[in-house]
Design goal:
This protein has 468 residues and is of the alpha+beta class. The chain has two domains: 42-77 and 192-468; 82-177. The chain is built from nine helices and 24 strands. The protein is elongated and about 130 Å long.
Length: 468
């Protein structure tokens, strides 16, 4: 029989070293096989808290459930609407009468004229309306028609170019009737604006194999857990929640038929920024355009036109926020205030704005609370080089009144599909055959995330978007 014996010594043979360390070939080579690594298991947050989730809640957005493919909501129209049209010819200052062509009633936001109405032209000249027939101006989709404007003082006193290329807006400021005349044969019906925003569906997945799930690493990913896949799953969940919020901020509505991806129609939903771009106040310009108090005064003047709330939360990127700070300083410091917020997320707490990192100032009857917006500063998101189009938002801290029901509602509302106890706000489930899950015949565990949501922006005309 043949017998094989093991070597007399296992592992690496011992080596003789001189007492003089200079003659060692490598002290580290000899010791590295027995020394434990001097490892620091704390995971350093190199870029701080990278989550952007929570912006909408901080600005006072409420959370509601929905049970249809879209959310329908109502907004009040202006009590006094202007009338669009053009003069038939050049209006000279000495003219006593003029022909004014009223635009079609289907023109967005266009009002109607009645006989005996008094109108204001160019904010200064007043005239009386004549020549409206019994059928003209009836209904919101009426055809264009001509009227005669008669200057109240005998002459208009202003010059105005005419023709279809020179559309103007005139305001109805009242009316005048003769003694013994009948009441108007026509009346104005108040209207509301119906808006609708569809839901959007977001999905994400993370997967780990059985072998990876049992690997123990060097890094403490939290609560004394050294399994790296736990970090991957937590980051995937946070990324999903951030993307859901970013889509509610930056999403855009798609055509009614959707946009085809792999021959399947995908529908989008109007986000916060798109709502302001469509029907809100957009203040465009570089940081130098916010160098003096006159620049914020221009925004204040527009807020007055929109019947805005007296208190605003302003979220801006760092450069725009610094420009605002310089602007306030240029006013000699007189614009600063320590006043308490009255509405929204501050809950009437005079110290809450300071605790949340806001700096505040007051101008023109409005209080503005400024705070840096992480989303706009992140170089991997809206702060990326070459981006920087969106520089900030100014959000009214108030509630609005539904003109149809009279109910008060938040200006921003996050909606999630839900019915009979089933909610699609944040669905999370696992499929696989490891870590206690036994619903699939695979040596993996898959984490699934899904949400169906949208954002409603009420009274977008009172919100301000700052752009480059």
């Amino acid at each position: 029989m043949a017998i094989t014996t093991p070597p007399l010594s296992g592992g690496q043979a011992a080596s003789i070293k001189q007492l003089d360390p200079a003659k060692y070939s490598s002290l580290g080579d000899f010791l590295s096989t027995v020394n434990a690594p001097d490892n620091r298991d704390i995971l350093t947050k190199t870029y701080g808290d990278q989550s952007i989730t929570g912006f909408l809640k901080m600005t006072g957005a409420v959370k509601s459930n929905g049970s249809d493919d879209s959310v329908q909501y109502w907004e009040e129209s202006r009590l006094h609407s202007t009338v669009r049209g053009h003069f038939g010819g050049t209006l000279a200052s000495g003219h006593a009468t003029a022909t004014f062509a009223v635009a079609s009633g289907s023109t967005a936001g266009n009002g109607i004229l009645r006989n005996n109405d008094v109108v204001l032209i160019n904010g200064q000249s007043r005239a009386l309306v004549d020549g409206v027939s019994a059928t003209e101006g009836i209904g919101t989709g009426g055809a264009a028609y001509d009227v005669t404007l008669r200057a109240l003082t005998g002459s208009f006193g202003i010059a105005q170019a005419g023709g279809t290329a020179n559309v103007v807006e005139i305001a109805v400021i009242g009316n005048l009737y003769a003694q013994g005349t009948d009441q108007p044969s026509q009346f104005l019906e108040s209207n509301v604006i119906r808006r609708e925003n569809p839901y959007m569906i977001l999905k994400e997945t993370f997967k780990v194999s059985g072998s990876q799930a049992t690997n123990i690493g060097y890094i403490n990913v939290g609560n004394g857990d050294y399994r790296w896949y736990v970090k991957g799953e937590m980051d995937t969940r946070q990324r999903f929640m951030d993307k859901r919020e970013m889509m509610m901020l930056l999403g855009q509505d798609t055509p009614a038929t959707g946009i085809s991806v792999d021959s399947v129609a995908v529908s989008g939903s109007e986000g916060y920024f798109a709502a302001i771009q469509d029907r809100g106040i957009v203040a465009a310009g570089g940081d130098s355009d916010f160098a003096t108090l006159a620049d914020i005064d221009a925004i204040v003047a527009e807020l007055d036109k929109q019947g805005a709330a007296p208190e605003y939360a302003c979220y801006m990127d760092t450069t725009r926020m610094l420009a605002f700070d310089d602007m306030i300083a240029s006013g000699g410091g007189n614009a600063f205030t320590n006043g308490a917020a009255a509405f929204g997320s501050f809950q009437n707490d005079p110290d809450a704005a300071v605790r949340l990192g806001f700096t505040s100032f007051r101008r023109g009857g409005y209080t503005f609370h400024n705070k840096a917006f992480r989303l706009l500063n992140d170089p991997t998101l809206l702060g990326a080089a070459g981006a920087g189009h969106f520089r900030g938002v100014m959000i009214p801290l108030t509630t609005v009144v539904d003109p149809k029901t009279g109910n008060r509602a938040a200006a921003l509302e996050m909606n999630f599909k839900a019915a009979n106890g089933y909610s699609r706000e944040m669905e999370h489930w696992m499929t696989g055959s490891i870590l206690g899950v036994t619903n699939a015949n695979v040596d993996t565990l898959q984490f699934n995330y899904r949400s169906e949501c949208n954002l409603i922006t009420r009274a977008a005309n009172q919100h301000v978007l700052l752009t480059a």
